[in-house]
Amino acid sequence: MRDELYASLIGKSMSFHDRQRIGDVLARASNDVREVNLMMSPGVNIVLGSGGFLLMPLIAAPQIHPQLILVPLGFLGAYFFLVRDYLTRLAPATDAVRRDFGKMNMALSESIDGIETVKASAQELREAARFEAGLVDWIRSTLRQGYTESRFLPLLLFGLAHAFGLWHSLSLYTAGQIDIGGVVSFNALLTLFQFPTFASQFAYSQLSSGLASARRMLQVINDEVGTFETLKVARSEGYAEPMRGEVEFRDVSFRYAGNDPEADTSEHPAVLSHVSFTVKAGQTVAIVGQTGAGKSTVVKLLNRIYDVDDGSVRVDGVDVREWNLDALRRQISIIEQDIFLFSRSVADNIAFGNPTATRVQVEEAARAAQAHDFILAFKDGYDTVVGERGVTLSGGQRQRIAIARAFLTDPHILILDDATSAIDSATEDQIQRAILRAAAGRTTFLITHRLSQIRWADLILVIRGGALEAAGNHDELMRSSPAYRAIFAR
To answer: Which tens digits make up the pLDDT trace of 447-469?
Structure first.
């Protein structure tokens, strides 16, 4: 079950993950899965095991006297009605408990994930109060669930059934229709109702909690927005030829979906609007523009992190939506501004995109990215385990490891999204020469504000307000584009 949920989460597109809070997702993947497991065992096991205890008095009582079926039959009818009413009242309470637990976990996750910002802003008390507010909401929901569970009327019903059963059997005994042994036997049969009555209070509560958790899990699994099943080509299908590196944007428009998967994306502002350009195989392309102009979005459409709303993105003349997704992404490597490193060894992080790479290949990629020397300075060298997100490394070290990871995949299209922003000038010169070597024979996209990198691009795209304002080489744009000249004038 947990494997299926994990596989579903990994299989979702970024449109889905942009709408999620990591703390709530973790609550679904851990605590909700546990609740479903407890629902099955002991919850469902107890409910099914109670069946024999409920049916036995109904079968055996008429053998003592036909009229004695009345109390067991009345008990069962009232029992099932009351249990149904109990579950109906309990469902909203358990839903609220699971929901508030997810919110509480979300607050904890955000505070821990942003702990450096919390401490730098001296907001520890405020974040603690925020978590405490979520904790109070969860406790209140739990108390409301407990109050609902306390009004479990089958417990009262069991007492009434015993009282009426004793009265009815004694009446028949007084009338001479059964003997004293029949009275004892019948009332002994009624005690069989004790186990399902007392055990079901726990079992049905666990059943309701499990169903609430199952609904939360299925909400993720069945979310059709951004799943691979809704895309035109699944991972096992589509175009999968070796990539030459030709790229074409045809009248591309794109809007981010926002937090509501059902909302019409046309209501959101366009991040890209009617963008068209063509890149030949092996060209180096610089994408420039102001912050928020849509530069990073351009390259995220290229490897289908997101899909276009209108128009098409084509690689080697084939719409990226017709490519086999694995084949497309294996041949495109991207180094983003926000470098993510796993809490694994340096070598594992470099080889993440190419797990079969040898240590020699890993070291060659590190040398090309000017990372080899500082890696060897670590106590365990390439076997040094970096902290989560690479927090034990400097910004420049993280970027060089990410560049080495990109080099090792030997991509046909290389994308560098401001990849040298945290590197000093001397190291940048070394890495720029490495990038020049790596760019040879492959299509390279550079998103950068560094003029030294922009100048040597074969094609420069000037993005402004989500639209392509100008395209050409450096000399052409200096003559024809005021927006491009303004970049150099700053």
So the answer is: 887 777 788 889 999 998 889 99
Structure tokens at 465: 């307000």
Element (H, E) at 417: strand 413-417
- Any residues with CB less than 8 A from the CB of 327 and at least 6 apart, and which? 238, 239, 240, 241
Distance CA 251, CA 311 (A): 5
Closest by Cα among 351, 330, 333 to 341 = 351
Q: Which residues contact 19 (CB under 8 A, 6 or more apart)?
A: 257, 258, 259, 260, 261
Cα 229 vs. chain centroid, distance in angstroms? 16
Q: pLDDT, tens digit, for every residue of 80-95?
A: 999 999 999 999 999 9
User: Which residues 6+ apart lie within 8 Å of 283 measured at CB?
Assistant: 443, 444, 458, 459
Query: Around Cβ 369, how many Cβ atoms within 10 Å?
Result: 27
End-to-end CA distance of the chain: 56
**In which order are the strands placed within the sheet that holds 247-254?**
272-279, 247-254, 310-315, 318-319
